[in-house]
# Entry
Amino acid sequence: MNHHQPQPKIGVYVCHCGTNIAGTVDVAKVAETMAQEPNVVVSREYKFMCSEPGQNIIIQDIKEHHLDRVVVASCSPLMHEPTFQKACEKAGLNPYLFQMVNIREQCSWVHQDRDKATAKAIALIRAAVGRVVYQEPMEKVKVTINPQTLIVGGGIAGIQAALEIADSGHKVYLVEKESTIGGKMAKFDKTFPTLDCAACILTPKMVSVAQHENIELLTYSEVESVTGSIGNFTVKIRKKARYVKDNCTSCGECSQVCPVQAPNPFDENMSLRSAIYKTFPQAIPNTYVIDKEDRPPCRETCPIGQEAAGYIALAAQGRFQEAARLIREQNPLPLICGRVCYHPCESECNRALVDEPVAIKNLKRFIIDWELAHGGPYLPKPPTEKKGKVAIIGSGPAGLACAHDLALKGYQPTIFEKLPVAGGMLAVGIPEYRLPKKLLQQEIDGIKKLGVTIQTNMALGRDFNLSDLFKQGFQAVFIATGAHKSLKMNIPGEEDFKGVYHGVDFLRHVNLHQPQPIGEKVAVVGGGNTAIDAARTALRLGAKEVTILYRRTRKEMPAEEAEIEAAEAEGVKIEYLIAPVEVLGEKGQVTALKCTRMELGEPDASGRRRPVPVPGSEHLKSFDTVIIAVSQSPEIDFNQGSQTLKLTKWNTITVNPETLETGIPGVFAGGDVVTGPDTVITAMSDGKRAAEAIDKYLQGEPLENFKTHRSRQLAPRTPDDRPHRFAPRFKDTPRQPRLRIKELDPLERRTNFQEVELGFSEEEAIQEARRCLHCGLCVECHACEKVCEAQAIDHSMQDEIIEIKVGQILIATGYQTMDPKDLIPYGYGRFPEVYTSLEFERLVNSAGPTGGRILMKNGREPRSIAIIHCVGSRDINHHPYCSRVCCMYALKFAHLIKDRTSAEVYQFYIDMRSFGKGYEEFYSRILEEDVNVIRGKVAEVVPLSYNGDQQLLIRCEDTLANKYREIPVDMVILCNAIEPQPDADKIQRLFSISRSPDGFFLEKHPKLDPTATATDGIYLAGCCQGPKDIPDTVAQASSAAARILANISRGEITIEPIQAAINPELCAGCRLCISLCPYGAITFLEDQGISQVNEALCKGCGTCVSACPSGAARAKHFTDEEIFAEIEGVLR
# Structure
């Protein structure tokens, strides 16, 4: 206080509060004592200061004595402080020059000694008198209210409030994270105590919400962020992709053809639903939704993004034609991929975390082979209107894939192939026993039918160059000439003797039926697939002994394990840690290899340990044929003339890795000529990317935002993970061995080039396909698209973020029920006939898994049922609170059981709490239905075998009969506790609200303001604030709606000025206050490097003030002078 100002005039008023205060505190003495304090002009006592006469005393004294400060000592500051502040305002005194002392709760109610209570009251009032001197006038802030309201939660509370606000003519955004509104009430069969049909009460309201012009329904949506304050909130909402458009007619055809079945959470996982579903028949909105989590790892790791899980799911139902069509929609060479793909999909298959990967490659082969045997392949029709001409150089997997996709886009591709046959390395690099050439030719013929022209014996650089192609009218060129040049070891004698071949050359000659003399004792040098193919081919050409020499160990061998095993089965020997250093011969013919032993050193660039020669280990090995298959590279002899391509040090073409553009406009390259020797499927991926890039290039579009798939690195998974949220953990999934594909006998097949693998039968394919775990739920088989007449399915939908502005927010997010698995004595999760309350709700519901019939899992009707109350409620080890609704719905269950079965019913309760209107009468009615009501806690539920019949034994105490009982039953229903939603912590942070120790959202005051929160403009309704029944939920929702409407009708609201402020000159920018503020009221001004308080959000709690290391934060109405004066008053 400024010492030059006049001395304050303080009035002190002490309330008797009837006898609540005066019965313990000597009120008269307190008033007399305070009259002697400095600056106190008036000191009075009165029986009820909060009454109108009491307030009038204050008003009159302010006017008569010109009081400029007032102190009232009474009770309940939260309720009565505004009362006395208004009295001061009526008399013309600023309400913030008032101070209140609580001498009921802090004195009379906590003390029995009158003298001590009186002394304490005097000390507290003296402190207030000292403090009020330093209080300064403040003015409340008025904020305009945006009339739009956000309601979070679409259960009965959210629905009720939304309708009441909307009926008053104001816009409401109703956000619900599930695909439909209705909440838990939509699961119920009947409501107590009237036994009305829950759906009959709820669904008309749901329809009203959907049809209301003032309600914008945002289902399958979640709030992402909330900024601003009362009157002006800005909210960002994520609208999750439904993958079904609003024009869905809800015919249900899509769910009938969906091959994926998963547990139905609406039926508490007691039934199955398809990946495309409608939650329940009366769902609002009345459209389907696709449950699509992360895409399956098989799809993500496939270089072309093949929807493997889709065709496997179709195959599991015997729908092979649909599966084949799905494969061909994405894969131009499925016959080939089903045989020679290195199947990275299997390497990442989640089934490996259970037992072994699904045999994806073998299933693809079966499906396409089945298609060939049943009417031939499905060939999509290219557009009739043709676009420009594109030249493709090379007819390997990259060139064929590119031509296929370009033809389907309407282009006229021409493939130029150097070899006399089309197919590239597929034709000349893979042996017949792995890939029959007639099947390759079928794939090529299918591509030619799309309008693709193939010219063989046409080599780039020999027969034409790039300039020639553009002169001939080709608008773009794709170079995919592969890697056909064998690399040499560059060891002595390698080029000096007959009988020395190189892997790729050797296989090419054999596949082109060119003479290839082979000896009896063959050495193959290398460890890749080419080496294995060469070794097995040599056997088939008559070699008596074939040995593979590999310089590392089996672990580092790059060839596929299955190919290695097949070679060994046929008699191929493999020697490890050995490397040739010289080729020896006589009379121009190879006779031996000089070899050295190797040992593994440090890892090299490939990640494999580098082989290091062992000194002194050189020795000779006799062979009459040597095939060197160490690697290969592209042949770039065409790179000359005016237009040259930039090359890498590995002799591969340099391209933009995203667009496959070379340095020459209109010229693209991909496959092995870019990557070096790689796999068939990787080359196909480049071909498909090139087709999209060329299309964009020729259409004048930017070469960005490609749709063609690129495989991605996946996050590691563990046995504790799940394929999707409804499935058991991998480690809990039943094991089922992988089926092995049948093969020709090794002794038979090594003498010919017949195809080794024979394929699955239909029964085997279905059995193997059923091992798939349907990772991510929707497997994108697109069966739903094909039957949807409304064309409402759109798998390309993306989540959408929308921003709305509202004035007030109502939280009505509901509850979850406790998982009783942790309550081991009750047997839930161990015994199949132990049910939770919601599971039984669905069991008795006519739309539930049994159509409303009360049946056990074996299909029989139970003869006796136990209903156990307070499971997890009123339990200090779990939830000490009462869940309020359990007693009544347990009685409802008893009635329904009696009404629908002849079963004996036992109710095990602690206390029967029938507190609501009509509840006691309902209880009496149930007792008249011969329900056994036992007061006592159940100790445990154990299995019981009686006369060969499996039952459950209830062991309990009967406190009324004062004895221990054991009761056999067929079924047990647990009345498990109501809990906060699992995302309550997230909601708390988003909306800057508090939670009580039980986890529910905290109201402003449990008696005086159970609807509001401590954050102005944010309200609560329903079970998110605490357990309550439907009538109380609806009443609270209506109350919240009324509060919201009252603010809207006023058009503005006043905000308390008791807030923190930050002195910008002292603020050090440490941001400690921001991290500590429980209301999110402090932001950081990056440009100024200081913190700033949002006055509309700040509640003046003082957390920032006490923590600020620089003293920049200051609390209005709680200054240091005020607090120190208060402390001095107490201590005096």
